[in-house]
Amino acid sequence: MNAVEQEILKVIVFQLADKEYAIPLSNVQGIEKLMHITRVPKTEKYVKGVINLRGVVTPIIDLRERFGIPVSDNEETTRIIIITTDEMEVGFVVDSANDVIDIPVNAIEQQPEVVGSNEVDFISGVAKLENRLLILLHLDKVLNPAE
Amino acid sequence: MELNQYLEMFIEESKEHLQSCSDNLLELEKNPEDIAIVNEIFRSAHTLKGMSATMGYEDLADLTHKMENVLDAIRNEKILVTPDVLDVVFESVDHLEAMVMNIADGGDGKRDVSNTVAKLKRIESGEPVQQNAVELAAAEVATTTLVEQNSPELDYDSFEKTVILQSTEQGFNAYEISVTLRADCLLKAARVYMVFDILEKNGDVVKSRPTVDKLEEEQFDQDFKVALITQTSVDELHSKILKVSEVEKVTITQLTKDKFITSASAEAATTIEEVRENENPIVPQQKGQEESVSQKTSSPTKHATSKTIRVSIERLDILMNLFEELVIDRGRLQSISTEVKHAELNETVERMSRTMGDLQNIVLTMRMIPIETVFNRFPKMVRTLSRDLKKKINLEVIGAETELDRTVIDEIGDPLVHLIRNSVDHGIESPEVRRANGKPEEGNVTLRAYHSGNYVFIEIEDDGAGINRDKVLNKAISKGIVSKEIASTLSDKQINELIFASGFSTADVISDISGRGVGLDVVKTTIESLGGNISIESTEGVGSIFSIQLPLTLSIISVMLVEIEQETYAIPLSSIIETSIIKNSDILNAHNQKVIDFRGKVVPLIFLEEIFEVPRKEQIDQDYHSVVIVRKGEKLAGLVVDSFIGQQEIVLKSLGNYLTNIFAISGATILGNGKVALIVDCNALMK
User: Residue ranges of the CheW-like domain (chain B) (predicted)?
Assistant: First the structure.
């Protein structure tokens, strides 16, 4: 969003179920393979727990759970995307993450059409690119537990 | 101008200078005759003034300047050092501190100090600050303001004046040189540089107008003035400067002592006698200067040992995190090398392990700072308090060099302030009472810090009245803190502990300083939240000792690791009393609560598995349970776990900003295998 004035927004593309999502590259600190997650009791269901990210205890959110998508078994391609915002550092569990692409800013529609399901609340826009449809996540809303 | 980058440095340095001012002022109070101390204070104030003016904090600079004037007068023995004068100077330092704090908090450093400024002015002009102030001062001080107006061409501040005067006495000449550049001069800054270059080769530049910075930025018209101390003759200087191209005119006037001190103003005539007298003080002062020179030769060694750089605590945390990663990798490497059985590899891994051990110590001690940073504000505080309360108190500080983790240092200040106020207010009696009780009028408060084991002890000892057992008991009963029945069974120690109960205050008159009854319980809570504890020893009529025990660091704690199914949890050793294995048949039911009989006490059982909702693969009925008996205050509880792993020192980590307020979890740590283990908050489990 802070890149609205810019022509191009660099994003990381990841998959959840059959949809493709995007997070601005500037918010992504890294992508990790699935590692041991320590469960933290009495937290929301989508909070998988915490991991040791090079000495920093980092909370992990399962985006499938967060968006109400049925959980799949961990597969080879499952990744943890480490997100940093001003206030916090968290990891998102996603089905796979492999693309960094440039989205022309004018391809982003701020008001998403009906995408269906629960994740509507977490979307800041939709980018249409040739034959792909990328859903841009609204990080603050995803990270705000009292949604 | 981009001053922001200097702001932090400015704040830190200002604090240091103010601290040095306070320290030296206290020193001065003990030795009012020692001019070297005044010089020291003056130097700090002067630097502070310069810095704050540069940073654009006019109020700060202004007040410092006023204070400086007074100090200067003291230095020149125009004002006697009296407690009243010092009060005002202390007050100024307090204001300055408040301003700096305000700047540090993002404010503009403005503050209404007119009252203090007025007082400073009154001192400076020799009027009594308070009615009972020394009248003598009045006559003596008259010249201070005078000298201010006296400066011939350039305005010299007191320090520069001293320098010039001393140099002339030592056979140097002081000149004021006025240089005019040609109107068509293009590279003014370059010419200035060349002139300064010549001057500095021939002597010392004391002052210039405009300032050197402005000259370098070409912020002047065509002429500038410089004060120079030199042995070179006027003619030589003149011709040398004229050799610089584009210099149009050079005027050199000599600064003689007389010309320098006296002024043409009419007032001077009446006080000229005194001015003459004042030339004498310069001689002893020079001696003082020499003394301080000899001190200086010794002081660099002192400074050399404490050469420091500032590193933000975040960076140290990062260093620590990375280091832990290394420790984990080292573990892996060790196990690989034992498998491979390669002699050279083994040796290298062992060497690396040892080096890392040393490294770990260094990383940990890097976060330690001397408790001095907290202690050094107390002498001034006690001084102010004792004057307010009209008591005579001597504060002794022992072990200020004792080192503690930065995080503990940050937290411990307020509780200590409270305890010291408490000792000064409630502990030490008034001089009359002390005399009547056959004690010396001056009370002693001792602040002591020392290491012992993995703990730091801080003690506040006073030789005051001590705790009056009956008074405390009556108060506690009247406030409903204990019942009469229980009261009679309490031991002395337990009674002393009562003063930490909330809503307790023994002072007959509630004073401004302490005694609103909100203090000591807060102190206790704060200290306990730091993982420490506080105890009192008191003998009525003889005095009290408040003793605080604190962990060396908050970032490393000893824990007991336990296992529940596949999950590992850490229970802080500080809350554990003991561990035990109990039989199923030992578990009793009381009011839907499973309890055990533990050494004659009924202890409720808490099944961590239920609390933490640990997923069980299969339900196993065990005949035996592993129980960790934990304590919160007087209460006990038994935490039921699957098995004990063992005791370990761990590094405490937060769960981050996303996960806050997790029930019964106080934090996390990273285990040797690289996995995260959660730390159990026993206090939350025992409501």
Answer: 556-687
Residue B587 lies in a domain: yes
Q: Which structure tokens are listed for B2?
A: 């981009």
Find the closest chain A residue to B660 by CA distance. Answer: A43
Tell whether B391 and B538 lie within a shared domain.
Answer: yes
Asked whether the beta carbons of B563 and B671 are under 8 A apart, the reply is no
Of B320, B613, B654, the CB nearest to A41: B613
Residue A72 belongs to domain spanning: 8-143
Q: Is B610 a catalytic residue?
A: no
| Residue tagged active-site, from B40, B68, B140, B459 | B68
Domain holding A136: CATH number? 2.40.50.180
pLDDT in tens, B68-122: 888 888 877 777 778 788 888 888 888 888 888 888 887 777 777 778 888 888 8
Contacts of B255 (CB under 8 A, 6+ apart): B152, B164, B168, B174, B175, B176, B227
According to DSSP, residue B426 is labeled I
Report how many domains make up chain B.
Answer: 5
Size of interface A-B (CB pairs under 8 A): 79
Pick B613's closest partner by Cβ from A42, A50, A59.
A42
The reply to whether A2 falls in a domain is no
- Residue B625 appears among annotated catalytic residues: no
Residue B68 among the catalytic residues: yes
- Check: CB of residue A127 under 8 Å from CB of residue A30: no
Containing structural domain, residue B395: 370-551
Same domain membership, residue B545 and residue B403: yes
ipTM of the complex: 0.85
The pLDDT value recorded for residue A38 is: 92
pTM of this prediction exceeds 0.90: no
Question: Quick check: is A1 in a domain?
Answer: no
Q: How does B114-148 read in b/e, with b if 16+ C-beta sit within 10 Å?
A: eebbebbebbbebebbeeebeeebeebbbbbbbbb
Number of domains in chain A: 1
In a domain, B150, yes or no: no
Listed residue (B402, B667, B409, B683) closest to B556, CA to CA: B667
